[in-house]
Write a structure and sequence with these properties.
Order of helices and strands: EEHEHEEHEEEEH
Strand order of the largest sheet: 1-7-6-5-3-4
Largest sheet: 6 strands, parallel
Number of helices: 4
Bound molecules: inosinic acid, magnesium ion
Number of strands: 9
Shape: globular
Radius of gyration: 18 Å
Length: 203
Amino acid sequence: MAGSSEEAPDYGRGVVITDDWPGYDLNLFTYPQHYYGDLEYVLIPHGIVVDRTERLAQDIMKDIGNCDIMVLCVLKGGYKFCADLVEHLKNISRNSDQFVSLKVDFIRLKSYKNVLIVEDVVGTGRTMKALLSSIEKYKPNMIKVASLLVKRRPRSDGFRPDYVGFEIPDRFVVGYALDYNEYFRDLNHICVINEHGKEKYRV
Ligand code: IMP
Ligand code: MG
């Protein structure tokens, strides 16, 4: 707005979920019975994850549409986000004058040209930095990173993906393929695990 002193929103941070956000009461949604008692609250309902992913697909198409892209899914936590993102990219490609030719792979070492890395969550950023340096050896023309979630951390080393779905508090989250010791991948919503859940599924 003209004359407004408000800062322009930084869309690069994605949907910002602040530390004081109490989340949604679990009883307002459905979720598998075997996780009753193991979760604190719903951080991001499944529908909002899917809606946000649709917009990320539009942003990605605007930037790197009309070329051949290798979508590189970081297993295992990235599989839901990757599948939904690819579905949206295909829809845009079918229904608009933008197109994209997509190939999908799951982190394997070989030569790549235009790479879109699809990750579930960036915490410290160490995993992504290591992955990027191993892929850079293959000298791709372009590497972009899309992460559904980025944790807000006090001592973040500043790694910022090109596309961010949600910036979240520094809590351990599960659901939508994100796991705790392989559990909770079958939960649709992104939720904060509670102490009981951590104890129950501790290895
Ligand atoms: P980073 O190296 O600290 O950025 O951690 C990234 C990886 O750790 C992700 O790819 C996830 O596999 C895992 N991770 C980090 N935080 C969470 C979480 O809250 N829930 C589930 N997995 C997580
Ligand atoms: Mg991951």
